[in-house]
Model the fold of this input.
Amino acid sequence: MGEDEILMLQSNDGRIVTVPKSVALLSETIGQALESASRTDMTPIPLFQVNYNTLKKLVAWMVRHAQINPSKDCQSGEEEGKHDGKASCILDWEREEFDSMDRNELFALMNAANYLGVSPLSRSSAAFVAEKLQTMSVEDAREYLSLVDDFTDEERDKIRQETLWTEKRCL
Done:
């Protein structure tokens, strides 16, 4: 199998997305599948947990990432001595892509990246969501993450009283 070989990836709904092998190898899962199975034919690699639209986005991200090939690992600006609230591991084009997705699309892409072991995408998308959450109120963050507030009013008041010193300290 040469580096220019085209692989076929099959989404959970049976649709095919093609990708150059060199790009597909950004995925640890696909790399392991290729190593463990003596592939001599062009049968599609089934990806049972990824739908077609998400797979198209993931492959497009991998193609673009392979073209750019960023050399630095994900670091926060804070570690570099400057912190503007934005993680430096999110490239401008990634930020634009993530911004253009709704929450469900973004989380589906994150899950696919995790499932397929595409670490750079996992890191940059997680950093993007973390950035986004930093600017939200607790209520907005709960809504964004689809979390139910299971505290009673009394429990919330008790927690506020117990942590009041932190608010005073920050002033």
